[in-house]
Amino acid sequence: MAKYDSDLSLLFHALSDPTRRALLTRLAAGPAPVTELAAPTGLRLPTVMRHLSVLEEAGLIATSKDGRVRSCAIVPEALAPVRTWLDEQRNIWESRLDRLDSYVMKIMEERAK
Amino acid sequence: MAKYDSDLSLLFHALSDPTRRALLTRLAAGPAPVTELAAPTGLRLPTVMRHLSVLEEAGLIATSKDGRVRSCAIVPEALAPVRTWLDEQRNIWESRLDRLDSYVMKIMEERAK
DNA sequence: ATCATAGTTAGCCACATGGCTAAGTATGAT
DNA sequence: ATCATACTTAGCCATGTGGCTAACTATGAT
């Protein structure tokens, strides 16, 4: 249960679809209305709408409606938690390498006796 | 179709589950057999096995069997494509932000409420 | 040879996901 | 007032996902 119990799960899930990543990349060039976003995907509007909803619920994009046009824009800081998690993982791994290193050193010193 | 048509999709999908991220974090401390990995999750063995399969198919871990024990270990460089993608996006997104498009800012402020 | 341990495989279940069509709503143009 | 545009909602379908139990295999210990 509570499959997406954190921002991180929502974010990673949103990013796991190629269509959604393509939408993000397109939006990086600037805001765009839904129909314009849908065009290059080859998908129907409702399908694209749902992809956009996933992106919005993950906080990766923000939308606003002006007249009958809904404009979508990227939320640049939304990727921060992903970066943080990646950095943490790297740090843990490196500290493990350090420990392994000192362990090896210890053994080598032991043998040097 | 071809939902996970790239490494990136496989990776993001693998990372989108809290249990799998927890497994990775545990494995960052060093290799471990399946049963030991399963213990803290509160999940049954077959369930954990499948999570491990997803991680392995994404290339995030590697496993090997010694006797009846299967040992799982992290593949640290597997996260590289994710980092790369993230860096690319950040570069695009930030250069976009540098232009300070007032329309984007307006939407972001709207959503911040 | 027997038993315990550590996976492994098969299969069931409820729900989520990604695609669609069809029909509805709201707004700009004529 | 009418019509086209731009979503929006509802709902169908096939497949995927994450959990489980039960039963099986393989290996180490006695």
Low-confidence stretches of chain A: none
The CATH architecture assignment of the domain at 7-76 in chain A turns out to be Orthogonal Bundle
CATH superfamily of the domain at 7-76 in chain A: Winged helix-like DNA-binding domain superfamily/Winged helix DNA-binding domain
Q: Biggest interface in this structure?
A: A-B, 37 and 40 residues
Largest sheet of chain A, order of strands side by side? 1-3-2
**Quaternary status of these chains?**
homodimer
Biggest sheet details of chain A = 3 strands, antiparallel
**pLDDT average of chain A, as an integer?**
86
Total number of helical segments of chain A?
A: 5
Helix-strand category of chain A: alpha+beta
Strand content of chain A: 5-15%
Count the E strands of chain A. 3
CATH class of the domain at 7-76 in chain A: Mainly Alpha
Question: Roughly what percent helix of chain A?
Answer: 55-70%
Q: Characterize the overall form of chain A.
A: elongated
State the end-to-end distance of chain A: 56 Å
**CATH T-level fold name of the domain at 7-76 in chain A:** Arc Repressor Mutant, subunit A
